[in-house]
Design brief:
single chain, alpha/beta, Aspartate Aminotransferase, domain 1, Aspartate Aminotransferase, domain 2, 2 domains, 5-stranded mixed β-sheet, 17 helices, 14 strands, 40% helix, globular, tyrosine phenol-lyase activity
Length: 472
């Protein structure tokens, strides 16, 4: 199969158009609302797209977590669910799939990714520890801090530059990591958290060379590496495309090698594994595995189901195999690139190069008249919904939360609005609608007013915070 390109790109360079490598067997009707209905829904939701009812949404790009369309093989697997409380055969299918494709020895199932993050944090972190990572993720950092650690961002500087075309903006800066080790001591760093791809940086990948170099550095100090492997297969495609020596290797081979430079991983199966629920923690550390297997009974469920039904474990095991199919993965990232090509033609600012799972709009560039305290990324998500019923989400100052010590806002350099593309759900025509709506919102940017926060929950505020429009 040829490398997917946008239809506009294909026409421009005389290349053949491409289509999704699947056909539709079932449809779910979408609701098209009026602007007046959307205004009412937005006000009732406190201008927070997380609080909108899904029935009021036309094209839902809030997240790619659990929103994928499962294959016919996965649905068939759902009928083979062994719902025994202990020792479900579906767990052993899942365990074998993880061991085969990711290479880790021990597996603990969880209800979703944050369950795995909690287990790892509780098992590995002690009060006063420090966890370096290549940019924070909301739930990951919360669990690390809740367990008593301080998170440190050691990603390369290019990750904070939306215009940089660095091919691996998710890479860890080895000098930053070394300085942290020298500052706090290796015994205070339970592990390095290496995310692939890096969500908050725009879905940017990590190179194999960087993973290998981080392994070499941490090995000198006895520091472990745990992946946030949620989109590791997407990361593998970028390595295949961009890194010398990997163009002839399969995604499965690249994935297995990448994981070999780590000691374990947390996984939200709701992304790469193409299922609606589920996750896992995997490790090569027998001692940590025993602790996590004890904790999972407290927090999640028995160690052979971890909060998942047998049918969900079976669907996930099948999804792991399907995820490393190169035709599927090229089409998945190709659809994101198609949307990026359209936005680029119209000069709409977003994080470049295009990442694996989403387009991240540069809300600062959209609304230079808005201070960060006026929540430009939240404003952009609200304006897009108001224009067309498309639901996106904020990834800026609201998601960053507050400093636990000072109580001040964390102020990230990036103020982004995420358009997250579910897997095997929408067509290119839907992407056209999204692009045209964004063009309309961009053209009206100068007259757009920001927001103020009127309700702030204690934890992970971006999920439930409420806002109102600033007066004109």
């Amino acid at each position: 199969m040829n490398q997917p390109v946008s239809r506009t790109m294909g026409q421009q360079f005389g290349r053949r158009s491409w289509a999704e490598p699947w056909k539709i067997k079932m449809v779910e009707p979408l609701t098209v609302t009026t602007r007046e209905e959307r205004q009412k829904a937005l006000e009732e939701a406190g201008y927070n797209t997380f609080l909108l009812r899904s029935e009021d949404v036309y094209i839902d790009l809030l997240t790619d977590s659990g929103t994928s369309a499962m294959s016919d093989r996965q649905w068939a697997g759902m009928m083979l669910g062994d719902e025994a409380y202990a020792g479900s055969r579906n767990f052993y299918h899942l365990e074998t799939a993880i061991q085969t494709y990711y290479g880790y020895k021990y597996v603990v199932p969880t209800h979703q990714g944050r369950g795995a993050e909690n287990l790892l944090s509780q098992a590995a972190i002690r009060l006063g520890d420090h966890v370096p990572g290549n940019m924070y993720f909301t739930t990951t950092r919360f669990h690390q801090e809740h367990a008593g650690a301080t998170f440190h961002d050691v990603i390369i500087d290019e990750a904070h530059d939306t215009a940089s075309l660095h091919p691996f903006k998710g890479n860890i800066d080895l000098d930053k990591l070394q300085r942290l080790i020298d500052q706090v001591g290796a015994d205070k760093i339970p592990y390095v958290c290496l995310a692939v791809t890096v969500n908050m940086a725009g879905g940017q990948p990590v190179s194999m060379a960087n993973a290998r170099a981080v392994r070499e550095l941490t090995a000198r100090y006895g520091i472990k590496i745990y992946l946030d492997a949620t989109r590791a297969v997407e990361n593998a495609l970028f390595i295949q495309e961009r890194e010398e020596g990997y163009s002839d290797k399969s995604l499965a081979e690249i994935l297995r090698e990448f994981c070999s430079y780590s000691d374990g991983a947390t996984m939200s199966g709701k992304k790469d594994h193409l299922v609606n629920i589920g996750g896992w923690l995997a490790t090569n550390d027998r001692e940590l595995f025993e602790e996590a297997r004890n904790l999972v009974v407290v927090y999640e469920g028995l160690h052979t189901y971890g909060g998942m039904a047998g049918r969900d474990m079976e669907a996930m095991a099948i999804g792991i195999e399907e995820s490393v199919n190169v035709d599927y993965m090229r089409s998945r990232i190709g659809q994101v690139r198609y949307l990026g090509d359209l936005l680029d033609q119209w000069g709409i600012p977003f994080m470049k190069p295009v990442g694996g799972h989403a387009i991240f709009l540069d809300a600062r560039a959209f609304y230079p008249q808005l201070e960060q305290d006026q929540f430009p990324a939240q404003t952009l998500a609200a304006e897009l919904y108001l224009d067309s019923g498309i639901r996106a989400m904020e990834r800026g100052i609201v998601s960053a939360g507050r400093d636990q010590v000072t109580g001040d806002h964390h102020r990230p350099k990036l103020e982004l609005t995420r358009l997250t593309i579910p897997r095997r759900v929408y067509t290119q025509a839907h992407m056209d609608v999204v692009a045209e709506s964004l063009k309309a919102v961009y053209e009206a940017r100068e007259s757009t007013r920001g927001l103020r926060m009127v309700y702030e929950p204690k934890y992970l505020r971006f999920f439930q915070a409420r806002f109102e429009r600033l007066p004109g």
